[in-house]
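Lab notebook, design round three. We kept the backbone fixed and only want residue identities now. Task for the bench partner: fill in a sequence for the structure below.
Input structure tokens:
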């Protein structure tokens, strides 16, 4: 059985990009609830702070999750997300679930990591599509475990699901009204990457501390994708509100375009550029200081 074919793109995916009413501070009717399965047996305390949960050797289709944590008034910074999930083969690296290491590349805290929402309440992480696994006589749908917490006080133990997964129907955790806003659509981008947006709403959660020198956010890759006459550059989620400077150079090293952009993702209009290869230098201020990245593009 092809367990992956359920992952579908479509117009429904566009709806996930819209800002929910809750994030506009108008309502608090889209709250995120705990999953009926609770914590499950495979959580491990003390996962490192990181947002690339899968190593380059990890088998599986790549996914990228982004979203915002909000209370009833708007986005909230400094909220911790502790994330873990199964391998492509549907097992957990955990003493109670014998899961073989990747040959030649054993790894601690495999497919686990913690991160904190940035000053705009945003988070993002990358990993691989979790495999479905047998729970008793039935497969559980693919899912990602998350503990959303703030010290002291709020803690929600929940799971994120994949729209279209045939195993959702009849699942104790996923097939109930309280899970409806945790079943999210995924769109496939180029290069192959399933991308999903999960906006979390938790009444009562308040602004917390953002760790200084957080290694999690700095490891997040910059990547680009083509959209019509533009190239969109996706930057790490804790980008400051300062503009991002883009400088486009041709292969001879000549500066052919320069622009300052605010907002994410950063959009570069390539309508005026001739076909060919270019290097785009991006620079922007992060919480750790000025960051620079060079991204090759081909038009
Ligand atoms: Fe699980």
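Proposed sequence:
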């Amino acid at each position: 059985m092809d367990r992956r074919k359920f992952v579908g793109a479509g117009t429904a995916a566009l709806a996930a990009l819209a800002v929910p009413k809750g994030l506009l501070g108008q309502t608090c009717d889209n709250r995120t609830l705990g999953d009926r399965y609770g914590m499950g047996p495979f959580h491990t305390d003390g996962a490192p702070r990181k947002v690339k949960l899968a190593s380059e050797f990890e088998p599986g289709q790549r996914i990228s999750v982004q979203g915002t944590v909000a209370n009833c008034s708007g986005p909230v910074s400094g909220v911790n997300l502790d994330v873990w999930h199964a391998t492509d083969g549907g097992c957990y690296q955990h003493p109670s679930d014998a899961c073989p290491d990747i040959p030649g590349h054993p790894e601690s805290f495999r497919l686990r990591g913690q991160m904190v929402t940035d000053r705009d309440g945003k988070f993002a992480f990358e990993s691989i599509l979790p495999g479905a696994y047998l729970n008793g006589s039935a497969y559980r749908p693919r899912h990602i475990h998350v503990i959303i917490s703030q010290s002291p006080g709020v803690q929600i133990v929940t799971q994120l699901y994949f729209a279209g997964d045939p195993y959702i129907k009849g699942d104790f955790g996923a097939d109930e009204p309280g899970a409806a806003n945790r079943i999210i659509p995924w769109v496939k981008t180029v290069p192959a990457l399933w991308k999903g947006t999960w906006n979390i709403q938790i009444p009562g959660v308040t602004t917390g501390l953002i760790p200084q020198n957080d290694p999690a956010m700095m490891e997040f890759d910059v990547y680009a994708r083509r959209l019509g006459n533009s190239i969109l550059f996706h930057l790490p989620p804790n980008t400051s509100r300062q503009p991002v400077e883009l400088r486009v150079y041709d292969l001879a090293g000549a500066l052919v375009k320069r622009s300052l952009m605010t907002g994410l993702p950063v959009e570069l209009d390539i309508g005026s550029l001739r076909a060919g290869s270019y290097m785009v230098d991006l620079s922007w201020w992060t919480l750790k200081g000025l960051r620079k990245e060079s991204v090759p593009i081909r038009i």
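Keep this in mind before ordering anything: The chain has two helices and 19 strands.
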